[in-house]
């Protein structure tokens, strides 16, 4: 099973809302990632968790707050977002944080009004 | 940090022809180079990857070549089929940054039947 599951598939939120994106994998992977992908652009790395600890934060604004409750789950908490934050948010996982294949979820398409 | 340039941005070929996509990278410490295929509205999926200790890797109709001296790598697809139509992304990961992928800008490949 190489499935990374993301919920919800679509999310519309206002700039004052608080929402969360969820990502789950059951492949026993110990590294998980959040990427942001704007239309017709490549994925851009936001955060990396390795063994449930945040190892990389690519200078992402504090209105994005990641959380890794356990080795199978990764959340991205959203608060006070801006319209320019509208994008596809992709979660990925890999066996570890070395040079292992990253498996991507289908993403959450976020619209901020 | 790493910078990955990808060319061409669009590529149109006739079914059965070959397609070549080229990428250059800036960080000589990069040692892992995956290629992802992303169909419209779907998740990126790994199609092939190569590590710096190998100059070429082939998987059926797909091959990747790596020139570490020149800091460039290429994707070759032979006998293209309509289902190969998608956006292809190259990526690079430096040796000292775990699995932190930097993606190229993407190539939209269109295979005409």
In terms of DSSP E residues, the strand content of chain B is over 45%
SS class of chain B: mainly beta
Ends distance of chain A = 36 Å
Please give the count of helices of chain B: 0
Approximate shape of chain B? globular
Helix content of chain B: under 10%
Uncertain parts of chain A: none
Radius of gyration of chain B: 13 Å
Oligomer: heterodimer
The secondary structure category of chain A is: mainly beta
Which protein chains are joined by the largest interface, and how many residues does each one contribute? A-B, 26 and 23 residues
Q: Write down how many β-strands of chain A occur, each being a DSSP E stretch of 2 or more residues.
A: 11
Major β-sheet profile of chain B: 6 strands, mixed
The run of helices and strands of chain A is EEEEEEEEEEE
Q: Mean of the pLDDT scores of chain B? A: 94
Explain the overall architecture.
The complex is a heterodimer of chains A (113) and B (113). Chain A is globular and about 35 Å long. Chain A contains no helices and eleven strands. In chain A, the strands form two sheets. In chain A, strands 2, 4, 5, 6, 9, 10 and 11 form a seven-stranded mixed β-sheet that branches. Chain A has a four-stranded antiparallel β-sheet with strand order 1-3-8-7, with no helix packed on it. Chain A is an all-beta fold and 113 residues long. Helix content of chain A is 0%, strand content 57%. Chain B has 113 residues and is mainly beta. Helices cover 0% and strands 58% of the residues of chain B. In chain B, the strands form two sheets. In chain B, strands 2, 4, 5, 9, 10 and 11 form a six-stranded mixed β-sheet that branches. In chain B, strand 7 (62-67) and strand 8 form a beta hairpin. Chain A binds chain B through residues 31, 33, 40-45, 48, 50, 55-56, 90, 94, 96-107, and chain B through 31-32, 34, 36, 42-46, 49, 51, 89, 93, 97-106.
Entry keywords:
heterodimer, A: 113 residues, mainly beta, seven-stranded mixed β-sheet, 57% strand, globular, B: mainly beta, five-stranded antiparallel β-sheet
